[in-house]
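#onboarding

Welcome to the new folks! Below is a worked example of what a typical request in this channel looks like: someone posts a single protein sequence, and someone else replies with the predicted structure as tokens. Don't worry about understanding the tokens yet, we'll cover that in week two.

Example request:
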Amino acid sequence: MNDIDALLSRVIQDSTADLRSVHGPRHWARVERNGLFLAPSVGANQRVVSLFAYLHDCRRLNDGFDPGHGPRAARYADSIREDLSDLTDAEFETLIEACEGHTRHTRTEDPTIAVCWDADRLDLARVGIRPRPRFFNTAMAVSMVTERDLSPLDSVEPRPMAY
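Example response:
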């Protein structure tokens, strides 16, 4: 499926998350925005970054402690592999690893996974958590968090979310 909006409609329809929660589609859109902002700085795969944004929290059961939601998101991505046929096997494996690991790991050498995780963590303020530089992988995200200035993200508009 080449159309991210069509995929997003399916993910929203299939989601176990509360769509109006702090982990819902508005968060997903900000994660995509953050990721697309960071991706060029490290040469990350922008398609994988966008897909991660819309999949990583789609299988949450609640807004609290839910350590299994990343692996559930990865299993969901695997279940819709036919809709992600434009991804190479290597890109798909990167997507799976990013979804699985975003709740358990902080460091990675893979630039695309680094951007995925940093993009998610740059949105922590929505739940009252001040991001700490040691949990970020990309120099650009570390700099923004260290300087406590996330305003560069404002240069990219999040995808409009209608659901």
